[in-house]
Amino acid sequence: MITFQMPEFSLPTSMMGSAPALQLQQKTVAMFMAIPQVMATRIWNLASMPMDTDTQQKEIQTMISEKEKAFIESIGDINSQIIASQLALGKQWMNDWQRLMSGNHNAFSNFGKHIDSETIKIMDKGISPYAKTVQANKMRLVY
Predict the structure, then answer these.
(1) DSSP assigned state of 103
(2) Predicted structure pTM score
(3) pLDDT(68) > 70
(4) Suppose 125 and one of 19, 28, 53, 81 were both cysteines; which one would form an S-S bond, judging by CB atoms 3.0 to 4.6 Å apart?
């Protein structure tokens, strides 16, 4: 396996987000760092193996089908999370509205945080199938 060193960096404290946001960032960076390793290893394996078209075609078909599968899973997961997030935000909106009617003038003060939280859940659902596929390929190609 061809390996690259992951750069060390840290975010300024003003850019630090919630724990789910940081986990999403870490998952995304790890995936983006693994993609070139997986691609380079696959291309190297294809280029260095004997001209056995069946084996090469199988590897190429596997690469294509993995991307299709991850895309379909991602779209399905995003859509289901969007519906769940809409329901959660609708419920929160109604709770805040009731609190406002009872005299709490700060009822909607945290609604932006709820929107951010649901947005992170949607993005996480979208990136997870790709991250799983890349990590599985990285592990498979190491051995």
Answers:
(1) T
(2) 0.73
(3) yes
(4) 81
